[in-house]
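Lecture 7 notes: from sequence to structure.

We start with a single chain of 110 residues. Read the sequence below before looking at the structure.
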Amino acid sequence: SVPGMRARAALEDMLAAGEHRVSCRMTGWDPFCRAVAQCTVTAEWPAGSKAQPHDLGLRLVEDGFAYGFGLDQPPEWDKDASEKLAHFEAISRQARRGLWPDWLAERSKR
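Now the structure, written as tokens:
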């Protein structure tokens, strides 16, 4: 799908900016036995700034290419993960960033 391709392109851009230096910490398993992890990439955002780790999932939510769900048990090392995701999701939805215009249109047609 076109929205899926846009989200994938956004992720690929983040990975390229960080020269694919990704680090993941597993948080558990989802109901379908898939590994769930918090992944970061070390990159310069914005360009020219000092390289620092960025949470890929949080960044995708903030940019409107993902939304948060199922964080009933945040990781031990990031107890505020659920609140941060909800905060950035609300901001990106209100600003209609990324895929939110598509998602909101789909929901209004139902």
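The radius of gyration is 15 Å. Keep this in mind for problem set 3.
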